[in-house]
Design brief:
Beta-lactamase, four-stranded antiparallel β-sheet, 13 helices, alpha+beta
Length: 445
């Protein structure tokens, strides 16, 4: 009993870099479920998607909570599963499927075995059409290597830095154990790809940003008035709680529930749609369900994603993971190589066109990078953070037109249209990454 009490207190500590609010520290069941859920999920994806060894996976998981060091994690390399338990409690398993990544084993998840994922081939053409990079600049390369070394000497755990200028990679640097082909988890940077996926459907005239009555569960109440644009701009008015604590909306969504989108779908409306900005990973997963529903189900959605978006962009090292219901976990569970994250940024920088293929309309890109109309935080577009809204610049040493895909652990794709330049930073920082300072230095090249 004494051991369990000590364990409970440890598990009740906040995940580093996240908030812990409004939750009883004595909810043992939720604490254990979340702990084993995050352990199984990150272990499975780390090993079978990113190719990390057990030591690297354990270190990544432990960076979120000291309690994670108490998890027992077991791998089955034949079945490609990872299981986590805590002193025999809360055993949770995640299973890897090629092209779909890792999904927590839940009722109905076996249906995912029937999904056929189109292969995106890697070509030996110059980047961004292929994998050949011959455009490196000596000054850019030297600076990135120096910044990478400085970051890691300071314990910031930067894994990759890459700069694109005028459509070409002019510098890239990788920490030991990481390469241009390593798929890396972007956490909330995935939200930006989720928006791009819907932007492609808009370009294909399959849906419009002003569409409402998005889910049958909302048809009998005021939530039917929420538009797709408001979901994209995080101004839906839904009361989803972006709190990362055992049993909260966010952790149930990612590490317990069979349906990631289902958690936010039950949220009550607490503000008039469009009036109030509230950052919500639940909203991003609602967008994923809209994509799947609008395309005709999981298999059709997977086909469109790979054949009409990833393949034309030559994104051969990108995986969008799905929940047990076959809906992309677009809020968080997207793994891409550093070069593929750069391709996404270049698509936006080039106003929706890449490798001779138009994925998005110019108008959609302009709308996506425009401040929203909320009453409290306008510096947010379609799942991207903007430098300028109504208040002071978010990154004061960067141009006002800068905007970024951002994710937990300091993941960034920072885009500056006026300079035709973007920077990708991948890492696993358990402390705040000095975006403004580092990117200002890099953009000064």
């Amino acid at each position: 009993m004494k051991k369990l009490i000590v364990l409970l207190l440890i598990l009740s500590l906040p995940f580093i870099g996240m908030n812990l609010l409004g939750l009883s520290p004595f909810d043992l069941k939720a604490n254990v479920q979340v702990g084993t859920g995050i352990g199984a999920k990150l272990a499975c994806s780390g090993r079978y998607l990113s190719g990390f060894d057990a030591q690297q996976v354990a270190a990544d998981i432990a960076s979120y909570s000291a309690a994670a060091e108490l998890l027992a994690i077991d791998y089955d390399d034949v079945e490609k599963t990872a299981s986590a338990s805590l002193f025999g409690l809360g055993a949770t398993t995640a299973k890897f499927r090629p092209g779909l990544g890792c999904t927590l084993v839940r009722a109905g998840s076996a249906q995912l075995d029937d999904i056929v994922v189109p292969k995106v081939a890697e070509s030996l053409q110059p980047w961004p059409k292929g994998s050949i990079v011959s455009s490196l600049s000596a000054p850019a390369q030297s600076l990135l290597e120096a910044v990478l070394e400085q970051d890691n000497n300071e314990g910031l755990q930067t894994r990759a830095l890459l700069v694109v200028r005028d459509g070409s990679i002019i510098g890239e640097a990788y920490a030991k154990g990481f390469s241009p082909q390593t798929p890396l988890m972007g956490w909330s940077m995935g939200k930006s790809l989720s928006a791009i996926m819907l932007g492609h459907l808009a370009f294909s005239e399959k849906l419009g940003m002003g569409e409402a009555n998005l889910f049958s569960e909302w048809s009998a109440d005021e939530r039917r008035n929420i538009t797709l644009r408001q979901l994209l701009q995080m101004s839906s008015g839904l009361g989803f709680s972006e709190v990362y604590a055992p049993g909260s909306d966010a952790t149930r969504m990612l590490f317990i529930a069979a349906s990631a989108s289902g958690v936010a779908k039950t949220s009550a409306l607490i503000h008039p749609p469009g009036s109030h900005f509230s950052y919500s990973s639940g909203t991003a997963n609602l967008l994923s369900e809209v994509f799947v529903n609008s395309t005709g189900g999981t298999q059709a959605a997977v086909n469109i994603l790979h054949n009409e978006i990833l393949a034309p962009m030559a994104m051969a090292h990108t995986t969008l993971e799905v929940d047990a219901n076959g809906v992309f976990v677009g809020s968080s569970n997207i793994y891409s190589s550093t070069r593929d994250w750069a391709r996404l940024g270049l698509l936006m920088l080039q106003e929706g066109e890449l490798n001779g293929h138009r994925i998005l309309s110019k108008q959609w890109v302009a709308e996506a990078t425009r401040p929203n109309d909320s009453d409290n935080e306008r510096a947010y577009g379609y799942q991207v953070w903007l430098n300028q809204g109504d208040q002071a610049l978010r990154w004061p040493d960067l141009p006002a037109d800068a905007y970024a895909f951002t994710g937990n652990r300091g993941q960034r794709v920072m885009i500056i249209p006026s300079q035709q330049t973007l920077v990708v930073r991948m890492g696993w920082s358990s402390v705040s990454y000095p975006d403004n300072q580092r990117f200002a230095e890099i953009f000064s090249l």
